[in-house]
Write a structure and sequence with these properties.
This is LexA-binding, inner membrane-associated hydrolase. Helices cover about 70% and strands about 0% of the residues. It is built from seven helices and no strands. The radius of gyration is 16 Å and the shape is globular.
Length: about 180
């Protein structure tokens, strides 16, 4: 899934009873697994590549979640749960661009037979399903408090850019993006 879709999904799923400031922890957790992908894009695989593995690791976030639950750190629970939700939706939808989601147990990426963007791996269908899921999540956010309405607008604008990029790859075979 695209990063804005992950953010909308996490906020819709975890933000119903959000207190003031919780939204940032939820959005941060949804962003963390992809954060170093952006760094890797500009800096190369090297150190950024190891950080991609660390920040996409189920064991890392599971330990963080268990520790946060044990110490009653509500916002860290939201951050870890949001990151785990991100990874749960990445696992089935990354074919050739999979991550090592079980690092440090293994550095082997699990490659799914389907992709959210790659037309060679049913990306047209799954990319459109992602768009529907994202639209539903944005609608849920819009129906909530003002802060989540603002988030819905911002995430909607960000997702629109990602969707144009997806359409370029999946349907036109070219890179349609601002970057």
């Amino acid at each position: 899934m695209n990063t804005p879709a992950h953010m909308a999904l996490s906020l819709a799923a975890l933000g119903r009873r959000a207190r003031k400031g919780d939204i940032w922890w939820i959005l941060g957790g949804a962003l963390l697994p992809d954060l170093f992908l952006y760094a890797e894009h500009f800096l190369g695989r090297g150190t950024a590549g190891l950080l991609v593995d660390v920040f996409n690791s189920v064991p890392v976030y599971a330990v963080l979640l268990i520790g946060a639950l044990a110490t009653n750190r509500r916002r860290v629970v939201l951050l870890a749960a949001s990151a785990l939700l991100h990874i749960a939706f990445d696992l089935p939808f990354h074919a050739g661009d999979a991550h090592a989601h079980f690092w440090p147990i293994t550095s082997q990426p699990w490659q799914s037979p389907v992709s959210f963007w790659d037309a060679d791996h049913h990306g047209r269908l799954f990319g459109l399903l992602e768009a529907v899921l994202t639209a539903v999540c944005l609608w849920v956010l819009w129906s909530r408090k003002k802060a989540q309405r603002v988030a819905a607008v911002v995430l909607g604008i960000l997702y629109l850019n990602a969707f144009v990029h997806f359409v370029g790859h999946a349907f036109a075979g070219s890179h349609w993006a601002l970057w």
